[in-house]
């Protein structure tokens, strides 16, 4: 590229919209309160702020990469379009019956989440494919047209089509799609064979319904955003971060918005993986805490762990099984309702509970002075001395400490007979323990020991809590990168263009068909590569091959990675050896005498990751210059201490500061606990380690 690279990363969160502008190697960032009714307003505002800081015009931007929680929030808050589902006769209630598993086995009053579409919005057509993709009962236009006429008369904006076994034979679904296009040309249509061509009808139907439900909203928003940017003179390409940790075009994002559901957190995981590569770290726990949620992700060998299914909108305190499963490629992370805006209350057992309800940005925590009366995590942080009320969000907002103290006393203190500071300490300990517990469970589920890990913390609220979290988890080292307050938006700018294509084709190793496998993986490679070519016409594209395998009779599979040669020259002995090797790593032993099955095939096409230079780590050469001191609550003694304040921008390379202390910057604040020492590394990272 002859002209200088000017790239904009934008992350819309539940509370703040983060905007990062990279001009060559220089970086400029800002945080703007999210504007719910028209989210594009916050983006335009933030873009002007960073362009002014950089001294450039918006028209000079030559690439925009965007991630958003809008899709997730629309599903959680049920704010989608009027949507109909067309499915096979006899399968109308699949999305309501779920899998019939009880996520809380002994709860007699178990409340399952309502399906996205009630029964009267679900329609059926005859016709039937069997489990091998062979037509058992034909489906004709005459069968489909009366159903579509009924849907058209009812005024639906969007239609999801999910027929049984369409992942093996999509002929019936495609026919329904054709009739819909003719009879309802203005409606948006989502076919499960395109959105998620995978086995397990509950997950597949749920995913195509979710896609149809949010498609009009996301298409409208992306269209408005593009229009507003053009008015501002920005004519470059706009790309979207997807939940698998890569970038897709705005056209593909509008067609498959369900792929955007975890796009913000995915950017954070990519950001952490980039820092891990800089430091040569193979075991990293990424901790991303914003205004609404906290996300924890395991990153091994500088690659975030990925999954094929995840849940959104869990109804039971983020309990596995209580949400809506979405079967798309996604970075595997645990998400809990613990952000700066998460609200606290006292439950029936007189215990402090935090989240999942959030104050968001409207009205926001009590200290924002926008009418919030309940105490949020940010209110506790302010009362405990972790935040400077006069210099929040780079001095753009002043916080009201008295309002925080009043909210804490009114809701928690009066009920539990505690003053504001003790209430704030209780709230902070509950939220930190919630996050620590989630990290422990996630590690155990993945067979990992967190004491071997390094934590990388980012997001506006994470550096305030990460030091305490490390103490609770027994993690010895914590890195807080530069730009930590806007980490996900920076991650968007580090992410490759990528797209993962999946397909379910059942095969046993006893019936191994090398030619069929080669043809299937070649098709998937072409499909995934086509999506990436839509974003970048010239870059080299790498293909990553995965198959999902299990022993016969097991309910779930494990992912097995194959090299290009193993995928293109399939050999039964190699497939078996790779499966047994990974199975033993996860479960300790293989199972003798059982046949092995393959259920899902996957190819991820991606542009090469950017080259990352290793940091020449510093071991500490001097003491950081003090900027002042303030009262900071120290959990180690359960009381206030005089803590040094150090300005992050003024810290020289190798400068150290002992805890308890505060390292202040525009977008966040790093709290150094009394058990830790902080050091500035050459790349700007603040490196917290246990005192020697």
List keywords for this structure.
692 residues; alpha/beta; ten-stranded mixed beta sheet; six-stranded mixed beta sheet; 17 helices; 36 strands
What does this structure look like?
With 692 residues, the protein is α/β, with parallel strands linked by helices. The chain is built from 17 helices and 36 strands. Strand 13 and strand 14 (294-300) form a beta hairpin. Helix 10 (377-383) packs across helix 12 and helix 11 packs across helix 12. The protein starts with 5 loop residues before the first strand and ends with a strand. The model has no long low-confidence stretch (mean pLDDT 90).
How far apart lie the N and C ends?
Answer: 48 Å
In percent terms, what proportion of residues is strand? 25-35%
Mean of all residue-level pLDDT scores: 90
Q: Taking Cα atoms only, what radius of gyration do you get, to the nearest Å?
A: 26 Å
Q: Give the helix level as a range of percent.
A: 25-40%
Q: Find the count of extended strands (DSSP E, 2+ residues).
A: 36
In terms of per-residue confidence, which ranges show pLDDT below 50 for 5 or more consecutive residues?
none
How many helices does DSSP assign? 17
Shape: globular
Structural class, by secondary structure, is: alpha/beta
Biggest sheet character? 10 strands, mixed
């Amino acid at each position: 590229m002859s002209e200088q690279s000017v790239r904009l990363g934008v992350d819309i969160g539940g509370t703040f919209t983060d905007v990062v502008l990279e001009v060559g190697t220089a970086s400029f960032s800002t945080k703007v309160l999210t504007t719910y009714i028209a989210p594009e307003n916050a983006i335009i505002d933030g873009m002007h702020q960073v362009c002014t800081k950089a001294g450039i015009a918006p028209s000079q931007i030559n690439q925009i990469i965007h991630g958003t929680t809008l899709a997730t929030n629309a599903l959680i808050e049920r704010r989608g379009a009027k949507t109909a589902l067309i499915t096979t006769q006899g399968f109308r209630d699949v999305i309501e019956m779920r899998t019939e598993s009880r996520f809380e086995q002994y709860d007699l009053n178990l409340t399952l989440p309502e399906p996205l579409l009630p029964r009267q919005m679900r329609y059926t057509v005859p016709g039937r494919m069997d489990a091998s993709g062979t037509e058992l009962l034909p489906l004709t236009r005459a069968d489909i047209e009366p159903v579509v006429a009924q849907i058209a008369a009812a005024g639906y904006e969007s239609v999801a089509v999910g027929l049984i076994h369409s992942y093996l034979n999509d002929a019936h679904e495609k026919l329904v799609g054709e009739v819909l296009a003719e009879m309802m040309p203005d409606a948006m249509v989502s076919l499960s064979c395109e959105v998620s061509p995978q086995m397990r009808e509950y997950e597949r139907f749920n995913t195509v319904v979710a896609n149809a439900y949010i498609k009009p909203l996301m298409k409208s928003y992306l269209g408005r955003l593009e229009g507003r940017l053009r008015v501002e003179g920005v004519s470059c390409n706009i790309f979207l971060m997807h939940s698998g940790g890569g970038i897709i075009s705005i056209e593909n994002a509008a067609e498959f918005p369900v792929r955007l559901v975890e796009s913000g957190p995915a950017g954070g995981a990519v950001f952490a993986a980039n820092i891990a590569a800089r430091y040569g770290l193979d075991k990293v726990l990424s901790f991303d805490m914003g205004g609404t949620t906290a996300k924890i992700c395991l990153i091994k060998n500088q690659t975030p762990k990925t999954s094929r299914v995840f849940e959104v909108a869990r109804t039971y305190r983020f309990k596995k099984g209580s949400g809506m499963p979405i079967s798309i490629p996604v970075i595997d992370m645990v998400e809990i309702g613990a952000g700066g805006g998460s609200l606290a209350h006292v439950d029936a057992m007189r215990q402090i509970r935090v989240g999942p309800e959030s104050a968001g940005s409207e009205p926001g925590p009590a200290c924002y002075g926008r009418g919030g009366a309940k105490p949020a995590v940010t209110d506790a942080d302010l009362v405990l001395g972790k935040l400077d009320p006069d210099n929040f969000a780079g001095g753009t907002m002043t916080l009201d400490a008295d309002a925080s103290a009043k909210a804490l006393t009114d809701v928690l203190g009066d009920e539990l007979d505690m003053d504001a500071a003790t209430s704030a300490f209780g709230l902070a300990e509950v939220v930190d323990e919630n996050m620590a517990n989630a990290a422990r469970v996630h590690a155990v589920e993945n067979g990992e020991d967190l004491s071997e890990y390094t934590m990388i913390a980012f997001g506006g609220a994470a550096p305030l809590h990460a030091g305490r979290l490390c103490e609770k988890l027994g993690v010895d080292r914590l890195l807080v990168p530069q730009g930590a307050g806007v980490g996900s938006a920076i991650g968007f700018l580090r992410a490759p263009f990528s797209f993962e294509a999946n397909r379910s084709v059942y095969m046993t190793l006893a019936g191994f068909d090398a030619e069929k496998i080669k043809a299937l993986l070649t098709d998937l490679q072409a499909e995934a590569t086509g999506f990436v070519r839509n974003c970048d016409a010239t870059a080299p594209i790498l293909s990553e091959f995965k198959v999902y395998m299990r022993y016969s009779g097991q309910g779930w599979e494990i992912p097995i990675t194959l090299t290009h040669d193993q995928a293109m020259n399939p050999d039964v002995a190699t497939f078996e050896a790779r499966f047994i090797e990974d199975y033993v790593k996860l479960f300790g032993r293989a199972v003798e005498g059982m046949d092995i099955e393959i259920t899902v095939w996957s190819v991820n096409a991606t542009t090469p990751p950017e080259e990352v230079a290793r940091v020449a780590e510093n071991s500490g050469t001097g003491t950081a210059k003090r900027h002042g001191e303030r009262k900071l609550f120290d959990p180690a003694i359960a009381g206030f201490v005089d803590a040094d304040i150090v300005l992050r921008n003024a810290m020289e390379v190798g400068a150290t500061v002992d805890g308890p202390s505060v390292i202040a910057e525009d977008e966040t604040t790093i709290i150094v606990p009394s058990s830790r020492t902080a050091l500035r590394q050459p790349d700007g990272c603040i490196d917290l380690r246990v005192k020697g």
